[in-house]
């Protein structure tokens, strides 16, 4: 018994090390947004190295805490017995629905949101979504969003900040749909009052932000030239605001708003379907309350910047949701671990294939991360 627990903790510790090693290797060449290009050429400063160490240790601690919550009472024999009961066909169906359905629809959503400012092919959008997932699996703080935004901006031939605006709408729609799913879960599942209040407040806030985006999307702002009257930073902020609002133009018409909401709804209906198939694959009751609660937990665990591959955070969120609904601890832990693998392994493979098809290398992705950060932080718009 003790030997089994020690082995499980060794596996968990190895996962933390393996997950944060690529992050350390990558970010040694990624600039700090507060430094200029010239300083970056000299090499990393002691203060920046210290900040990166702090971020890495904090992420490792969060992952370790989440894994402790999942593995603390898990035994190898019970774990493998749960694995033997997995149904392969529904599991393959869940992966197919996600990547052949949800991924394609999300590509159409990005294509629609960017259409007023630049045309990005559906295939390009799909590949950069996949590359973004791969990067998120390797790096903390959702750095894949920077890579994805930079790649899509390049493919569409638009300013980086305009791509940020359009993809901000996409993320806002995701959070709004997550709020709707949470409200639905509140109606059918016995959730704590704190969760109910948080869902209602969050829903009201994001509905207000979306309404503001719609209003801004109907306005056309013009960039200003450097006439010497405005300071460099004031001009920089204004012109980036103009480019950002240009990315909201898809919401400038009623048809644009309806299409965006319709595609976002379809994305989340497919997400519900893939979660339903996963529950079936693990012989868990595919009830509406369980599907909604687990999806809400997964949604919130991956929404905020987090650890590479959401290691530990994802597992703890899924397990907490299942235990809340009365699922036995070993089954819940097995589902959380395997569900994470089902997300990370296919996304890493498809992301690597997309990387190859685009003719990119890891150094190219590192450069896209540099460019993305500096296009936000450098008022003179320099590229490394």
What does this structure look like?
The chain is mainly alpha-helical. The chain has one domain (2-377). 77% of the residues lie in helices and 0% in strands. It is built from 15 helices and no strands. The chain has helices at 2-27, 37-42, 46-71, 76-84, 88-114, 122-138, 144-156, 160-188, 193-217, 232-246, 254-281, 288-303, 313-324, 329-357, 362-377. The protein is globular and about 70 Å long. The N and C termini lie far apart (54 Å). Mean pLDDT is 79; it is low at 4-44 and 376-384.
Please sum up the structure shown.
The protein is mostly helical. The chain has helices at residues 2-27, 37-42, 46-71, 76-84, 88-114, 122-138, 144-156, 160-188, 193-217, 232-246, 254-281, 288-303, 313-324, 329-357, 362-377. The chain has one domain (2-377).
Q: What's the end-to-end separation, in Å?
A: 54 Å
Decide which structural class fits the backbone: mainly alpha
Percentage beta strand = under 5%
- Tell me the overall shape: globular
Please count the beta strands (DSSP E, at least 2 residues each): 0
Helix-strand pattern, N to C? HHHHHHHHHHHHHHH
Helix content: over 70%
CA gyration radius, whole angstroms: 22 Å
Low-confidence stretches: 4-44, 376-384
């Amino acid at each position: 018994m003790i030997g089994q627990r020690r082995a499980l903790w060794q596996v968990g510790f190895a996962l933390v090390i393996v997950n944060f090693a690529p992050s350390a290797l990558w970010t040694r060449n990624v600039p700090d947004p507060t430094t200029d290009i010239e300083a970056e050429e000299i090499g990393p400063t002691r203060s920046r190295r210290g900040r990166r160490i702090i971020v890495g240790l904090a992420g490792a601690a969060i992952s370790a805490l989440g894994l402790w919550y999942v593995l603390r009472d898990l035994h190898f024999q019970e774990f493998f017995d749960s694995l033997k009961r997995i149904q392969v066909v529904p599991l393959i169906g869940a992966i197919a629905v996600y990547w052949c359905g949800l991924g394609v629809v999300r590509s159409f959503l990005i294509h629609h949101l960017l259409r007023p400012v630049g045309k990005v092919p559906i295939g390009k959008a799909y590949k950069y979504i996949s590359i973004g997932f791969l990067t998120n699996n390797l790096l903390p703080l959702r750095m894949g969003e920077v890579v994805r935004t930079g790649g899509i901006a390049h493919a569409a031939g638009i300013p980086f900040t305009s791509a940020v605006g359009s993809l901000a709408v996409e993320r806002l729609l995701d959070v709004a749909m997550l709020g709707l799913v949470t409200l639905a879960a509140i109606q059918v599942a016995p959730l704590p009052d704190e969760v109910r209040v948080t869902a209602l407040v969050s829903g009201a806030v994001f509905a207000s932000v979306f309404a503001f985006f719609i209003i801004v999307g109907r306005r056309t702002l013009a960039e200003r030239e450097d006439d010497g009257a405005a300071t460099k930073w004031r001009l920089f902020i204004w012109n980036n605001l103009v480019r950002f609002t240009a990315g909201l133009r898809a919401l400038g018409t009623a048809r644009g708003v309806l299409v965006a909401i319709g595609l976002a709804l379809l994305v989340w209906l497919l997400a519900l379907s893939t979660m339903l198939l996963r529950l079936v694959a693990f012989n868990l009751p595919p009830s509406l309350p369980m599907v909604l609660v687990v999806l809400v937990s997964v949604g919130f665990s991956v929404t905020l910047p987090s650890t590479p591959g959401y290691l530990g955070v994802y597992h703890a969120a899924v397990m907490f949701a299942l235990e809340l609904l009365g699922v036995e601890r070993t089954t819940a832990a097995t589902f959380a671990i395997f569900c994470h693998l089902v997300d990370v392994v296919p996304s890493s493979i498809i992301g690597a294939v997309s990387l190859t098809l685009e003719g990119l290398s890891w150094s190219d992705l590192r450069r896209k991360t540099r460019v993305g950060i500096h296009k936000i932080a450098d008022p003179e718009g320099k590229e490394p």
